[in-house]
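Q: What changes when coenzyme A is included in the input?
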Amino acid sequence: MASPPYAGRHPGWPARLGPLQVAAGVVELRGPRLTDGRAWSRIRMRDRDYLENWEPTAPGDWAERNAPTAWFSQWSTLRALARRGMSLPFVITVDGRFAGQVTVGNVVRGSLCSAWVGYWVATDAVGGGVATAASALVVDHCFTVGGLHRVEATVRPENAPSLRVLAKLGFREEGLFRRYLDVAGGWRDHLCLALTTEDAPGGLVSRLVAAGLATRP
Ligand SMILES: CC(C)(COP(=O)(O)OP(=O)(O)OC[C@H]1O[C@@H](n2cnc3c(N)ncnc32)[C@H](O)[C@@H]1OP(=O)(O)O)[C@@H](O)C(=O)NCCC(=O)NCCS
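A: The predicted holo structure follows.
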């Protein structure tokens, strides 16, 4: 039987991205670690009301799914998907501290070379350019080392902060997916926004730096 493409390592993984200075602090991206469980759980328990409204519905209770002990299965799933070339899962740190996650998922190669990007940021780090910087770093990485041609994001029309992140990065709105994803207990419409390499010839980080929204420390 033929080996799957990119068995073991695949373009773009593993990687460390950044640093990038924004209003909230110094943003860096790295792979998830088994030792992230305590910080991950503390933030997700505290920020439940803020996060639950925007995240895909999952079986089980929030407290159980986000307990420190739940991190092991999250971490091992992310690691397995990354090793198989299907995902690039990053932890976002701000000034060295765990502050959220940005994930590139559903990586499809061949004649599509496409993936989606998703993110969340802890409430004590929001509003300071963290998600915008993290997404710029990850999209630039996908379009260079990662060998992808297109990255898309699907967002509920009500999610103004997330739409603002994508607007700052220059994502194009491509359409509305009706009852697309089961979020917060119901099938929700989502806007689809996307970028292809042709849309960002100089890279998104350079665009943010030129706009005065980030600096390279
Ligand atoms: C969406 C999210 C990741 C943004 O993170 P962040 O680090 O605050 O993002 P940034 O600071 O880079 O940009 C947020 C922008 O939204 C703006 N914003 C915040 N609340 C807003 C609101 N209610 N209406 C309009 N704009 C809003 C901010 O002012 C900022 O824009 P600005 O830089 O022009 O002032 C964060 O709010 C989050 O984790 N939300 C919950 C999970 C989620 O929605 N994930 C995305 C699913 S598609």
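Observations recorded in class: The chain has a mean pLDDT of 95.
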